[in-house]
Each structure stands twice: as C-alpha cells, then as structure tokens.
Amino acid sequence: MKKKVILSVAAHGDDAEFLAGGTLAKLAGEGHDLYMAIATDNDRGSHRLSGAELRAIAKPEAEAAAAALGAKGVFMLGYTDGDLCDVSAITLRGQVMRLIRQLKADVIFSWDPFAPFEDHPDHRTSAWAASDAAAFSQLPLYHPEHLKEGLEPHRVTEWYWYSKARWQTNKLVDISDTMDKKLNALFGYQCQMVLTVDEFIGEAAAAGVDPSQLEQIDPEQYHQWIDMGMRAVNGKLGQEIGVAFAEAFRYGCVEPPAVFSQ
Ligand SMILES: [Zn+2]
Fold it and tell me: How far is the CA of 40 from the centre of ligand 1 (A)?
C-alpha cells in the first residue's frame, strides 16, 4: 500500500470531525499521514464564552481532537470566525497551497465548493480555497513565492468534499470501526459541543417544542447528545451500504486520460 499524505482543510475546529472524523481516523489507522488545517479560531462559537476565551482554547482543543483521530500535526490559520470571506481568495488559496506543497499532500478533505444551500460563509470560503489550491498546486507559476522558499509544485490526486445531501454523495465510507474515535475527537472540542447542544435547544424552542422537555437538557453534559446525534446520522448513512456507521462524500480522483483507457 502506498502511504499517502492527507490534508484536512476546515473552516472551524469540529467541521472535519463532524463530517469526516471517522474516515480521517480510518485512513490514519491504515498508516497514512494525516494533517489538520483549521482556518478560524471558532471565536464566535459560543453563547457563554468571550472571543478571547475561545481563541485561547482553540489550539489546545484542536490538538486534542487531532490526537484522537491519529493526526500528525495541526495548522491553525488564526482567522476570525465568521469573517473568513473577508480574507483575499488568493491569500487563502496560497496558504492552503503552501501546506499542500510543504506536506506533499496526496489527498484533500474539505467542504464541497459546489454544494448548494450552504449557509455558513466560512464553509463556502474554505471550500473554494481548498478546491482551488488542490486544482493548481502542481503548476509552478501559481504562487511562485513558494518555490523561492524551496518548496516544489505538487499534484493532489484525491479529493473528498463533505456531502450533506444524499444526492450530492458518490462515496459512502464504512466508519464502523472508527466511530468511537470520531466521537472522542468531537469531545476534544468541549466548547463547540456545548454550543452544539445550546443551538439544538434554541432551535427546538424556536420551533415550538414544549419548554419542559428542553429544561431537562444540560448542555454541559453534551456527551450523550452528541453520541446519540452522530450515531443517528452516521447510522442512517451506514444502512445504505449495510454497515453500522458511514460518512458521505462527493469524491474525486485523478483518472487516466481517455486515450489510455480504450
Ligand atoms: Zn463550521
């Protein structure tokens, strides 16, 4: 088996873990080298903590999650949560391309640049940066400053874009053996898990769920809710391919040109 280098490019800590944590842990467990890049510091992701408090815990939480997945390193780009769209597309593409060339990444994971109805601007922005960087990192005239730094052009050969809708999905990955690692990685993001349950309660209340049902939920005790929620989501995907748990992607890879496959 050829050992591959995998680069995950997320807008926020917890994006990769929610959408692809089981697959990333599976690939790391098979001996591939996994690296995590996170564009923002999650510093608007709380009803309880200040931006400064969130920024202070962004890296430790990302490192805890990366360790649970078996990743070899974490790269924090340090942008403000929610404002990623204000970063120049070329700047962000260049930062991702530099990581691709530095790590010699074969495989990239991110949000799907062509997914419709994605309402988070950071997700849309990180998707385009990852997709554009992966499409052109083999061309030396793109970001020639990297070559002056001693890096070389490098071609990405596989891409996994998170798939949130079944009709966008062309690959389901069996994560039954790494579901626990996925959950442990998510639990590394303590403040984001509290936020997830806070938002769950807020949405349920706004949708008219009886408040007495919601009073019983303590967001600080998020483990059971995240566990239950992810087992339901990944279990439903797993049913489609006859396994306990799965994750969904719009996947692509380099293909032999048609002239060689006739
Ligand atoms: Zn996100």
Answer: 9
